[in-house]
Amino acid sequence: MCAAELRALGTAPAAQLGGVSWRGTLESVARANLWSRIASRVVVRLAQFRATSFFELERHARRIAWTRYVAPQTVVEFRVTCRKSRLYHSDAVAQRFAESVQRVVSSVQRAQRRRNDDADHSAETAVFSADERDERRQLFLVRLDHDRCTVSADTSGALLYLRGYRQQLAKAPLRETLAAAVLAGARWTGDSPLVDPMCGSGTIAIEAARLARRIAPGRDRPFAFLSWPEHDIGRWVELVSEARAGELARSAVSIEAYDRDDGAIAATRANAERAGVADDLEIAVQPLSALLPNAGSGLIAINPPYGIRVGETERLRNLYSQIGNIRRAKRPAWRLAMLAADVRLAGHTEPAMQERFRTVNGGIPVRLLADAD
């Protein structure tokens, strides 16, 4: 699904275990951050090499063009994982990379001062800090696996699910990226009505409204690559302006968000307001059983309780059966898409649904089940 998103942006992505990769320009990185609803993070691969000693590691690290990714006064952080490698101490690996960046950045700065005949040495960049509150922060990811080292620069900054609108939460909140994946897995593209009768803090409905209105998920937030020395800020402004120009004023289809909990609905309203789609949603406090009949077609997208705690199975069996009964009685032509942790519980909704993908939500393995097309 993520590969399909990127393909629509003009790249040639290759899906692989745990992600999607492509070769492209910095503009393709900008478009991916701006438009991907499903990706968690976009990184740029800087180097891959074999290292069995710190000498080898340092030699390769000095060859990386760090100054392409580290602007003056940038806070630099290395996040290192080591697996079955002779260099197994992650803090020591991070220290060697940090020293290499410091040497390269300082050397370039001295050369620039000499060219400018500038004797003021007080502007030398201090680039290392663990303060994550600093907005000028650049994360580098280092992975050592069987002595093979991969170095990447994070382009996103905060993870992409942080769109900026979800500040109030209900119980068991759903990340924005997973909500968007539910819609993509159900093959909902904004051209038919949608209801989430157990909406929690409203993430599925809000993501549906933003998709229906063609609102770019990254239009209102900062990204790490915007601080890179080679980044064209003028082109970024153009991309955001183009995205805004393509937005629809209103959703062309109805989108409903209900929950029996007053606090959940209050959170949904507040989040929808911040997301700019409050007028696109019908939001109300109501139990699942109060869902109104609708003879048309559409999608019921739902993230019901998973039944992880001991003793919950019997109660939830009745809930899952109720979901199926209400769908058949009140919206028989509507398709159903459900995140489920227990396929046996989900089987009580009837008829049986197809598995579209597996992932993890809050540390719990889940799968998206949806009606057959």
Overview of the structural elements:
With about 375 residues, the chain is of the alpha/beta class. The protein has 2 domains: about 45-155, VC0802-like (2-Layer Sandwich); about 175-215 and about 250-370, 3-Layer(aba) Sandwich (Rossmann fold), CATH 3.40.50. It contains 10 helices and 13 strands. The protein has helices at about 1-10, 25-35, 55-60, 90-115, 175-185, 205-210, 235-245, 260-275, 315-330, 345, and strands spanning about 15, 20, 45-50, 75-85, 135-145, 150-155, 195, 255-260, 280-285, 300, 335-340, 355-360, 365-370. The strands form 3 sheets. A 7-stranded mixed β-sheet has the order 9-8-7-10-11-13-12. A 4-stranded mixed β-sheet has the order 3-6-5-4. A hairpin with a 2-residue loop joins strand 1 and strand 2. Helix 2 (about 25-35) runs parallel beside helix 7 (about 235-245), helix 3 packs parallel to helix 4 and helix 5 packs across helix 6. The relative contact order is 0.12. The model is unreliable at about 120-135 (pLDDT under 50).
